[in-house]
Amino acid sequence: MNKLTNFFESIFKFFDRFLIMPITRLVYRITKKINVPNKKFETWLSKQTTLLFLSLFIAVAVFVVVDQKIINFSTQTAEVLKEQKVNVIYNEEQYVVEGLPETVDVTLIGSKADLYIAKQSSNDGVTVDLTGLTSGTHKVNIEYDQGRTGIEYNVNPSVATVIIYEKISDTRDLSYDIINNNKLDTTLIVNSVKLSVDEVTIRGAEYKIEQVATVKALIDLANLTNKEAGTQTLNDVVLKAYDSEGNVVDVEFVPSKIKAEVDLASPSKKVPLNFVPEGNLATGKAIGGYTFSQNDVTIYGDSETLSSINSLDVEVDISNLTSDTSFRTEIKKPSGIKSISVDYVTVDIKVTDSSSEPVKFSIPLDGINVAEGLTAQPIDNENGFITVEVQGASSVLSSIDESDITVYVDLEGLSEGRYTKEVIVKGTNPLAIYKAKRTEATVDIIKEN
Fold it and tell me: What predicted TM-score, i.e. pTM, was given to this entire model?
């Protein structure tokens, strides 16, 4: 109750200070100037109710003068509303409209008060009414409804040429693309994707429908809430239509979005490490042995890639080594492998004196990658058996025999005829050095009997 009383007292004090007292002083000065004593007039004018109603009448009169612009208190000004959205009125189920700008600029001219009010309701003010228009090309006016009289406006652009198409429908098979694969842990792969629908309806102008070559659901792995192995559900999967060159075609989809079940898996395989020396040791030195900090690692990738890999090579630069050395070496990922359980391995190399005399073997020459229906054979015994010298530490050489060495020429892509090709030597023991006495061999490729 006290709050209400104080409120009315505040209102009374406001009127008393800013209306009643100034008007009283004004009337007093006027009567004093004209010097016309009138006791009854002074008594009537001195009443608070008289002054209150007189003040109210003057306030209403001032409001009417300002609102009806009988007196101009401010000059006109202009303001530009940038990028106002264009709202289109048409039958969206039956037609497709092209050619309208998405936004326009609107220049408003009027008083500051009117402009302020107009700006508050400008979001939906720009409209184009296409009601009653059918298929074809039309010139239409872009209009602005400022919602208030007394404002002039100019729309840029104010006219647009639009093309209206009949909207048609077609049914297309639905496939999918996986995006943001890098958002998954490197040990995970997408094992399978199951879409909630196999086909969708596309809607749009006939020429747009004819452009569509494929429709795909975009499986965005960044939207997975649980990025662990197992089946996850993606809601509101976005659909896209593409032409034959991979460009996006603007059409509607029914349904507009779908669901997808994404099965994440973590296929892995444990494989051993192979020591692969690169370069040449110092003269008279050989590798007597090596030790990895771990002999095998786990690799992750798709099942097909894993099945083709049985070991990983670890390349170690041994150039000019003269004493025992320890290396921390990167394990390179083969193509198709997403992750390895460790990226680096430490290898301890034991360096010893090389045997003064190499061990020699006579190895039969083989031909690889011969075309189907053909066979290869050396032209004589000299080309058919290649002398191979093996150098290394005595302890290493004593464990090597002929079965550890392969000598061959690569005949890939060759037809019938005689060819001289480079001789390639491979040995199973990486601690030894293998060298063929012949760098080339000649073979005949003939038809199989």
Answer: 0.60
